[in-house]
Each structure stands twice: as C-alpha cells, then as structure tokens.
From TrEMBL:
SUPFAM superfamilies: P-loop containing nucleoside triphosphate hydrolases. The keyword Ubl conjugation does not apply. Residues 29-230 form the PrkA AAA domain. GO terms for molecular function: protein serine/threonine kinase activity. Keywords: Kinase, Serine/threonine-protein kinase, Transferase. InterPro entries: P-loop_NTPase, Prk_AAA. Pfam families: AAA_PrkA (PF08298). This is Serine/threonine protein kinase.
Length: 233
C-alpha cells in the first residue's frame, strides 16, 4: 500500500512519463497547415545547424575579473557559459569553437559543407561532447514529408524561381531555404498525384538516436582535407 504522499509521487512520475511520450509522438499536417506553421515558427523550416543553435541556447557572459579564482584561470577575460554545456568545465574555448562552427554553417558559409571533427588525445572530452551534441539534436522537432525515406523537407517540393517570391511574401519563408530538390521518391509521388502537392502529408517528428530518426552513428573517413572542420578539445 502506498501512502497518500507516495501515491502522489507515483502519479507524478506516471503523468510526467505520459506527457513526455505525448510530446514526442508524431503529428500530421496538410501542406497548407505546415505553411501556416512556418508563418509563426521559423524552426519549422530551420536547418540542422539552426536547430542546434536553438538547442544550445544563448550564453551567459561572465566577467572573470570580479572573481579572484576565475581571473587567474581565464586571465580576466569575459567568458561565455552556454546552458546546454553548463556541466562541461574547462572546455569553454572548445565549446565556443563548436558554437562558432554551427553559427557559420547556419549563415550558409563554408562550414555548411563541412563535417565537424573533434580531434584530441584520449580523455580529452571528445566522446562526452559528441554525446551531448547528439542529445541536443533531439530537442528541436523537424517537419518532413510523410513516408519519405530520406525525411526530406516539404519545401523541396517548391521551386525557388517560380514559388520563392510567393512563399516569402505569404508565409515569411526566406528564399535561401528553397535550396533542395525533391528526392526520387517525392518526384514519383508527385507524378502519381498529377502535380497536386496538397495530397502530400507532413509529419512533425523529433530526431531520435534510439529510433534512428535523423541521427545516425557517425562513420566517416575524410578524403578531402577541406571537407573537415577540426576542433581540438
């Protein structure tokens, strides 16, 4: 028998579990509903780098000049502490490099085409950082075409030349997000639908390592030096 207090605690954990499960369930929308969501929420069409920056959060600026211990460690510098990496001590410079990489990738610079590569000796924190980055990717949901084997963005159905202006004026979607082409799967379905894109459905899903949704275990061997962005923890 549980006491009333224990019963409340058990109900709390069950309610918490159910709420978390419901929050991670797929939600389905029409193309029109998806575009309406884009008007209110820019993360509905954000790139992976932009979603990562959102998950990392804005930094807290700490002036080490006012703390005798920190001033000796950081030479009176102003350091940034990001909410997502608050438990990573002594890795401020490395974390700032990682954030800078994602910022540049989000801006469409050269980093957008590169792979983040953590380089350093054993025990340097590479695995911990990689696991944290994978966990952060699960924080922000993505929208993709239902049934697409590559989880492609619904915006890939639209032409930047012919549809870009309308999408930007009516739904606030910048032209730079119309930079993908439909997959063979989407092209085949589009032909089956006789060009009626309203027959496509959009699903909102959360990336998941456990379920293999948009996050995979990395396996990469660099062939071109310029394709790798190296960071030393």
């Amino acid at each position: 028998m549980f006491s009333d207090e224990a019963g409340v605690r058990h109900m709390d954990i069950f309610s918490h579990y159910t709420t978390r499960f419901e929050a991670r369930k797929e939600e389905e929308y029409s193309i029109q509903e998806y575009l309406e969501i884009c008007k209110k929420d820019a993360t509905a069409y954000a790139s992976a780098s932009e979603r990562m920056l959102r998950a990392i959060g804005e930094p807290e600026l700490i002036d080490t000049h006012h703390d005798p211990r920190l001033s000796r460690l950081f030479s009176n510098k102003i350091i940034k502490i990001y909410p997502a990496f608050r438990d990573f001590y002594g890795m401020e410079d490395t974390i700032e490099q990682i954030v800078s990489f994602f910022k540049h990738a989000a801006q469409g610079l050269e980093e957008r085409k590169q792979i983040l590569y953590l380089l350093g000796p054993p025990g340097g924190g590479k695995s911990s950082l990689a696991e944290k980055l994978k966990a952060l990717m699960e924080d922000v949901p993505i929208y993709c075409l239902k049934g697409s084997p590559v989880h492609e963005s619904p915006l890939g159905l639209f032409s930047p030349e012919e549809d870009g202006k309308i999408l930007e004026e009516d739904f606030g979607i910048p032209l730079r997000y119309l930079n993908t082409i439909p997959s063979p799967w989407a092209t085949k379905r589009l032909n089956e639908f006789n060009g009626d894109i309203t027959k496509f459905r959009v699903v909102k899903v959360r990336p998941s390592v456990l379920q293999g949704n948009r996050i995979k275990r990395p396996a990469f061997q660099a062939l071109e030096p310029d394709s790798v962005h190296r960071i030393r923890p």
